[in-house]
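<instruction>
Derive C-alpha cells from the sequence
<data>
Labelled lines for chain and fold:
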Amino acid sequence: MSVYTKVSPEQLAAWLKRYAIGSLLELQGIADGIENTNYFVTTTQGRYVLTLFERLRFEELPFYLNLMAHLARHGIPCPAPVADRDQSLLGALNGKPATLVTRLSGAPVFDPGERHCGQVGAMLAAMHLAVAGYDGTLENPRGLRWQRQAAPQIVPFLDDSLKALLASELEFQAQQRVEILPRGPVHADLFRDNVLFEGGGDGTTQRIGGIIDFYFAGIDTLVFDVAVTLNDWCVDAAGNIEPGRARALLAAYQGARALTPAEREAWPAMLRAAALRFWLSRLHDFYLPRPGELTHAHDPEHFRRILELRRAGAFALPSGPLP
C-alpha cells in the first residue's frame, strides 16, 4: 500500500469517466504497506480505494478481484471491486493494472485482546467456508517455490548463523506432506493491519468492519492461513505466543470449522512455515527494496525471532475439540 506510481487528480478524474460513481472530490495517497500503490478516492457518490499493481500482472489479477467479489457476495466484509461501464473489474492507469474497490469503515487494532482474537478466528473460519465454491486457481505467490527462488538472493546479506537457519528451515519445510491437508484460497496475510474494527475502544463493543488487502492470497493449506494469523494476532513483542489470545482465536475458528487430524499433526510445522514465509519476504524487502514514495519496509528480525521460537516449541493444540 505504498505510493510508487504517482497519480494526479487530473489523471484520475479523466480515468473515472469509465465509471458511474460520480466526479472526483479528493485523492489521498496511502503510506502503509510495501507492495502496491494505493489511494483513498472520494467522489460525489462514495468512498473508494484505488490500487495500482506494481508487481502483479494483468493475467494474475482476476484471481484476486473475483475472490473478493465472491467473498463479498457470501457475506464476508471485504472490499468489493467496482465494475466500470463495460463491466470490467480491472483497467490500466499510468501504465499499471488498476482497480477500484469499496472503502470499508473501521480501523486496525494494534493491541488486541482475547475478544478481538476470537472475532478474527471466527471470521477466518467463515472465509475458509465461503471459498469452498470458488474455482479460481493461483498458488500462494509467497509459497515454498517463491521462497526457494528468493533465498539465494538474500544469502549474501546474511551471516553464517542466519544462512544455516534459512537452509535448515527450507529443508524441513520441503519434507512436509502438505498435499494431504485441506486446501483452498487463503488470505495468507491476515495481520492486525488488515482487519478493520468498528465501535468502542475497549474490545467489548468492537466488531470487525472489514478484511482488507487480499493481494497475497492464493491456494494453500487452510491450516497455514490459521498459523499466519495466530503468529501475528496472538504474540507479544518478543514473538512468544500469548496463550489466552491463542486459545480465543483457535476456539472461535474451530467453532465454525474443526481442524482435521492431519491438520492437527501438521500444526507445529505450519507455525514454522508461517514464520519462515514472513522472515524471508521481509529480508527480501529490506535488502532488495524498490524505490518509492511513502514506502515502509518491515523489520525482518521480528519474524526471525518468531521462527526460532517456533522451532524450539509450538503452541500445542488440545487433544480434543476446543470449548
